[in-house]
């Protein structure tokens, strides 16, 4: 178990989620037709820049999997989330990078986005992941390809994703259907 893991009651978790959902709902900026026509972009920068909003999100995510050994955040906003949650839990943090950003050797997985394709990578050596319990974090769950690809990377190296969490879930895109059997927490569902 993590150094600072605390198992909370359902009421405590519900209160944390409610505070985080309020901050996300109040502070998120929306941009239509960005980065491509037809896409509505959720800019979470104001949430993360607000001390109380950021703390609420971090506390909510830390309560999702207090037993995690490593917190993994997806490039790039997941890095911010992962570092905050790892510091709260007293665990290590791992950045899941976009393709071509890490020196070899890497473990890589290609996936589809709602507006294109991409690849994610983690180090193939230098970080012992086999047998580790992973809390997987990202900012938005849309079509589900990014989170599913990240989870597949950890399975490939012998780690277990014990939970995943996102700030926003765009339910109409049905990304949850593409996830594994790990619990998936969304602070706000649209």
Automatic annotation (TrEMBL):
Involved pathway(s): Purine metabolism; AMP biosynthesis via salvage pathway; AMP from adenine: step 1/1
Record localization: Cytoplasm
Gene3D superfamilies reported in the protein's UniProt record: 3.40.50.2020
Top-level taxon in the UniProt lineage: Bacteria
Documented EC number(s): 2.4.2.7
UniProt xrefs under Pfam families: Pribosyltran
Catalytic reaction equation(s): AMP + diphosphate = 5-phospho-alpha-D-ribose 1-diphosphate + adenine
Keywords: Cytoplasm, Glycosyltransferase, Purine salvage, Transferase
Gene Ontology molecular function, alphabetical: glycosyltransferase activity
Function: Catalyzes a salvage reaction resulting in the formation of AMP, that is energically less costly than de novo synthesis.
Protein family according to the UniProt entry: Belongs to the purine/pyrimidine phosphoribosyltransferase family.
Self-association state and partner proteins as the record states: Homodimer.
Name of the protein: Adenine phosphoribosyltransferase
Organism: Nocardia rhizosphaerihabitans
This protein's encoding gene: apt
């Amino acid at each position: 178990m993590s150094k600072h893991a605390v198992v909370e009651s359902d009421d405590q978790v519900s209160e944390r989620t409610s505070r985080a959902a309020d901050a996300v709902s109040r502070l998120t900026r929306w941009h239509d037709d960005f980065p491509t026509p037809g896409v509505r972009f959720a800019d979470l920068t104001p949430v993360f820049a607000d001390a109380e909003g950021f703390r609420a999100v971090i506390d909510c995510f830390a309560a999702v999997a207090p037993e995690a050994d490593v917190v993994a955040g997806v490039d790039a906003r997941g890095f911010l989330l992962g570092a905050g949650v790892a510091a709260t839990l007293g665990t290590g943090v791992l950045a899941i990078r976009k393709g071509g950003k890490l020196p070899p050797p890497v473990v890589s997985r290609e996936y589809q986005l709602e507006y294109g394709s991409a690849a994610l990578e983690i180090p193939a050596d230098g970080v012992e992941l086999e047998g580790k319990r992973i809390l997987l974090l990202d900012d938005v769950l849309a079509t589900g390809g990014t989170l599913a690809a990240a989870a597949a990377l950890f399975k490939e190296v012998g780690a277990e994703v014990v939970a995943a969490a996102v700030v926003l879930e765009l339910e109409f895109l049905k990304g949850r259907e593409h996830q594994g059997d790990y619990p998936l927490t969304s602070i706000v569902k649209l």
